[in-house]
Amino acid sequence: MTNLLWHYTIPSLIEAIFYSKKLIPRWCTFDGKPILWFSANQDWEKSALQSEQLRTRNEMVEAYGSLFRIGLHPDQKLLEPWTSLQRTAQLSSGSISYLETSAQKLGANHSDWWGTTSSVSISEWRSVEKIVDDKWKELMWWPLFPNH
User: What predicted TM-score, i.e. pTM, was given to this entire model?
Assistant: First the structure.
């Protein structure tokens, strides 16, 4: 079985994501196009931290009450690996260096990074999961969401 690529998010954002029925590139770098980030890390993307004070997945869960992730299959060809995403997003060498160095300080591996500069519709999602009792559990109701 091929591992999914995951977009990690916090509870305060998941309702808006479901309401819009798509994931939207919102995180803008210093230059270039906004990127919708995904990770091949099957547990947690350490560069998805919202704060320097929150360094682990468990600290994030404690601070936000839970975490969510939305999975896409890599064979869908919707996402690009970090090496080609840099060009697509038109990032400067300074931005690339900053992102990679910052991620390394957090213990993240930029070779896990995937992304797109386009929105990803709910019809493309393959799984939605939530942290429950320290384990990722699929939300069984999400395929029933209208227009899925």
Answer: 0.88
